[in-house]
């Protein structure tokens, strides 16, 4: 029984010297983060495919059981909209090879304009993908959440490829007006969609956005803690990513979410103690 929790990134200016040791070189920051969390969203790959040497560094800094949910580049999902991007896809898959089993899923985050009318392109793209990876799809068109036929069509398509539907739960963010600069920024940029809690596979993936107020974030994830506990009892192996608008305490909150689920499922193993932010002393 295993629950992996993580954040949207493994390095953040607000973490240095407070949660993670200060002054870590870039090539050591993932290693330190991995003592806090056992998964991370690979958001940087959306903007550019990294070099193979960079990905080799990621592999060196993490254990084989660490989970990367790696986002496909926007050239594939947004610019080409899944068609005519085979060369970009081939390059990306080759670059990701050093991560081996650490690639928990390759993540297709589709634009809000990608509608039920585009499901044929998604089906053709999934058909071309190698079966050596697992895949997860995030959709943002409201029809998939509000139209029963569109929802069933997408679920049937994803199930046929053993692919997961990734929910991005922003309902707590939009439950009341923003109260900080970071929340105001999130208010204008994040999708406003209904909460979805149905898993299609044995390895569901959840993205949850809370608030910059800790108690509101924790209160908002209680339905997810119940759902994830049920998934664990069913034999599933979930991965949950905790976001807040400023992400200043995201690793702490991710671990707190794990604790909350463990309170519901006591047989879940606790997370190891994280690396201290300051060197240990004798006195």
From TrEMBL:
Q: Which InterPro entries match?
A: DUF72, UPF0759_sf
Any idea what this protein is called? DUF72 domain-containing protein
Which Pfam families does the annotation name?
A: DUF72
Q: Which Gene3D superfamilies match?
A: Protein of unknown function UPF0759
- Organism, by scientific name, is Nonomuraea mesophila
């Amino acid at each position: 029984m295993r629950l992996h929790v993580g954040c949207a990134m493994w390095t953040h200016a607000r973490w240095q010297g407070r949660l993670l040791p200060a002054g870590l070189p870039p090539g050591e920051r993932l290693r330190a983060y991995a003592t806090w969390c056992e998964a991370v969203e690979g958001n940087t790959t959306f903007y550019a495919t990294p070099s193979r040497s960079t990905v080799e560094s990621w592999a060196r800094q993490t254990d084989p059981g660490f989970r990367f949910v790696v986002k496909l580049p926007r050239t594939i999902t947004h610019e080409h909209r899944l068609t005519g991007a085979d060369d970009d896809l081939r390059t990306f898959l080759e670059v990701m090879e050093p991560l081996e089993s650490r690639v928990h899923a390759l993540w297709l985050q589709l634009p809000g304009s990608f509608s039920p009318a585009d499901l044929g392109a998604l089906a053709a793209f999934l058909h071309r993908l190698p079966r050596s990876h697992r895949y997860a799809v995030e959709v943002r068109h409201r029809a998939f959440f509000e139209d029963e036929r569109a929802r069933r069509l997408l679920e049937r398509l994803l199930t046929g490829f053993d692919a997961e539907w990734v929910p991005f739960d922003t309902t707590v963010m939009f439950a009341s007006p923003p109260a900080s600069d970071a929340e105001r920024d999130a208010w204008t940029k994040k999708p406003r969609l209904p909460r979805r809690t149905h898993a299609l596979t044995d390895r569901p993936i959840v993205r949850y956005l809370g608030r910059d107020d800790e108690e509101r974030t924790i209160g908002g994830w209680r339905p997810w803690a119940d759902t994830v506990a049920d998934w664990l009892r069913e034999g599933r192996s979930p991965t949950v990513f905790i976001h807040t608008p400023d992400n200043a305490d995201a690793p702490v909150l991710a671990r707190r979410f794990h604790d909350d689920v463990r309170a519901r499922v006591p047989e879940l193993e606790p997370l190891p103690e994280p690396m201290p932010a300051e060197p240990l002393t004798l006195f």
